[in-house]
Amino acid sequence: METKDAWQKYTPADLEQVEALAEDYRQFISANKTEREFAEAAMQRARQAGYQDLEALYEAGTALKPGDKVMACKHGKAVILAHIGIAPLADGFNILGAHIDSPRLDLKQNPLVERNGLLHFDTHYYGGIKHYQWVTLPLALHGVIAKEDGTKVRVNVGEDAGDPVFCVSDLLIHLAREQMEKTGNKIVEGEDLDVLIGSRPLKVPEDVPDDQKTPLQKMAAKDPVKAYTLQLLADKYDMVEEDLLSAEIEVVPAGPARDLGFDRSMILGYGHDDSSCAFPSLLAQLALDETPERTALTVLVDKEEIGSVGATGMDSQFFENVVAVIMALAGEEGDLKLRHALEYSQMLSSDVSAALDPAYASVFEPNNAAYLGHGLVFNKYTGARGKSGSNDSSAEFVARVRRIMNRAGVSFQTAELGKVDAGGGGTIAYIPAKYGMDVIDSGVAVLSMHAPWEVVSKADLYEAFRGYVAFLKAERV
Fold it and tell me: Which of 4, 157, 242, 276 could be bridged to 272 by S-S, CB 3.0 to 4.6 A?
């Protein structure tokens, strides 16, 4: 069944809204490239929209009623927003679930390595990447340094026009004969993704006696470049090398997302997977100006790219615990009511899908592929090798979702993640489905998924937002 290009239906007024949302998104992802930054910015927008801190309400014993808006955050990396509806909470929620982490390079705990007059940060890649895509790019550092005294220092270097940038070097073509004979997964090894950060040595005055030298001056005898860089870090962040043991520094592509194409119909940016779904989900949640029939809940979690593990991933108890607190404050406390609410909830697992790329058409099946600009994508199942690891949505729930989208005039399409046995992938969908709730994957089609720079259509962003709003407002049938 063919789908239509969403651009064809837009009026001049629609186009203004498409561009406004796309520009808001472009600026947001340019400023918020990590899960910490996304979570903080999401909570700031939520506060402006009238959301209150759930933990503070719980400590005060404040009762919740229809129309109330609450939010919760875990370790600054996962956020849940809830708009209390009219119907009993035990009857379930309408839920949007997206992840806010993206593939990247993470600094190791002992990252500083000086060799032959060059200083590098040693890294460990995070999520599924093609190693060779990360060489010779301008890179930025984002994150926090947690000090022993309990203070935290934010790090963001490489984004402002006056900032230095960093890079992973590559072998010159003149000496790369053996390298070019390797397979793609061996051209650049994961252990070789070291980020170049300095080459200037610390100059130690010759007349300083050894017993009067500072620790960094003593270090300079063996690692002069490392000593100079640590001096710079001490001056800027008041830190010592040991503070890197308790730091979370992420290496991401430097620079803002940009409009792509003469027609400016697309956006080239870092982290579309999964910001292109998480941001419209956030906007949809905040756009509910009236009290919904069913409680509307948006979950923005971390760690999806490495299996949804950890305290901030979907597989943690964070989601269930927050729902339990909300129900208790709404006067519906109890394990049985909680289980009933979770089972009777319905969820769109907001995650990206692979857009058919004509340059690599052989791995796609055209009748079941997502197309850029054709609207919100629904994946009834993902997985690999016979749907392994997939949440396979029920036919009845797919029909309900179709009805919601058609009644709202949302452009949508269905897809699989490439040809059978060509590969595969997963989302958070199977995790909330363990409660018995209906879940289906839905999101934006992406070109060059998991590359440092990915591509999405502005039309698909807009249709995702419209579809998410329609789903949150829907009554359960």
Answer: 276
